[in-house]
Amino acid sequence: MSDILGRRRFLSSAVLGTTATVVAATTIGAVAPDAIADPKLDVEAGAPDPNFVEGRITGIVGGLLMVTGSDRTINQIHLTKATSVWKLRPTTSDAAKVGDGLYARGVRMPDGTLAADAIWLNIVNLQVHITSIGRSAMHLDHHGDRIVGHVVAGTTAAVYNSTPAVSDLSLLQVGKHAQIIGAWRPDTNEVDIATVYAAA
Amino acid sequence: MAPPDPRAPTTAECSWFCCGAAWGPCGSAGGGACGNCRSASRHCAWPNTSDNCFAITRPDKCGDTLLRRTCGHTFYVKNLCGATEIGVTIADCGPQTDLWCGERSCCSGNCATNRLLDLTPSAYSAIGNLSSGIMPVTIRS
């Protein structure tokens, strides 16, 4: 419990802009989500998670994201120098754009805003079948919907049979199933592929 | 093999899935097999929620004999390399275990085999990083 209280104080200070806190956050780098210590069963099983937000960015003011949830809930999310940001790859908060979809995890401030520990922009996790493979893209069947998956040089990696990720995609096969972690291109049926998991 | 879903924890691989109102390719996901699934709630999918579900997921093909657990059942889940335990309730059928028989995930030398659970983004991100796509966990009822 002391860890989460400390984390809450840290993020509160970061949102409030305490100089010493921001310097400290920059020095230690972003805190990965799996390093966050929550108290036991901080959220009741099956219940909505008050420290989690999903939706699309409808406005950005400085380090504050205005987010409209898919259920129309309105949220405001503070980004700090300690916020871990992912958009196809680990990146910085200026990668956030209006129209992006997101998932965010953080700490609720007294005013109802969320101080973000981590945000994932446009992230998708798709169970697909590969219908065709080209040099720079592959076509995917996602529960009957066609998805175009773009291969991003220097980023896209493949994990075959639990082995370490490699850039070689040559073992992917048309007709086989795969799992795609990628970044959606907003308002399209296209994604940029970060990692493809497949059986070789 | 003793059926997983014991009072003592068992290990498995775990991924995440979206459900309920959603953006992007998740927009057509719907409320899942139980009708109430939400990405922002602490929900999960289990491969043996019904006969119809089991016929799709077929964990038995991977050698896993899973107990029947239906909508609303609570599991407690922990990252194999984490200290935080979360509670989740079944809200959907999945994952399709038989597509990934023998797959193994490890962290810090601790490994788990076969996909027996999917978590919503809310639940997964409470104990892991969504960008990892899959992680080893312990599961108990």
List the keywords:
A: 200 residues, mainly beta, OB fold (Dihydrolipoamide Acetyltransferase, E2P), 5-stranded mixed β-barrel, 13 strands, B: mainly beta, Barwin-like endoglucanases, 2 helices, 32% strand
Low-confidence stretches of chain B: none
User: What overall form of chain B do the CA principal axes indicate?
Assistant: globular
Distance between the termini of chain A: 44 Å
What is the typical, i.e. mean, pLDDT of chain A? Answer: 86
Your description of this structure?
The complex is a heterodimer of chains A (about 200) and B (about 140). Chain A has helices at about 1-15, 20-30; strands spanning about 50-60, 65-70, 75-80, 85, 90, 100-110, 115-120, 125-135, 135-140, 145-150, 155-160, 175-185, 190-200. Chain A has 2 helices and 13 strands. Chain A starts with a helix and ends with a strand. In chain A, strand 9 and strand 10 (about 145-150) form a beta hairpin. In chain A, strands 1-2-3-7-6 form a 5-stranded mixed beta barrel. Chain A has a 5-stranded mixed β-barrel with strand order 8-9-10-13-12. Chain B has helices at about 50-55, 120-125, and strands at about 10-15, 45, 75-80, 85-95, 105, 110-115, 115-120, 135-140. Chain B is globular and about 35 Å long. At the A-B interface, strand 1, strand 6, strand 8, strand 12 and strand 13 of A face strand 3, strand 4 and helix 2 of B.
Short account of what is shown:
The complex is a heterodimer of chains A (200) and B (141). Chain A has 200 residues and is mainly beta.
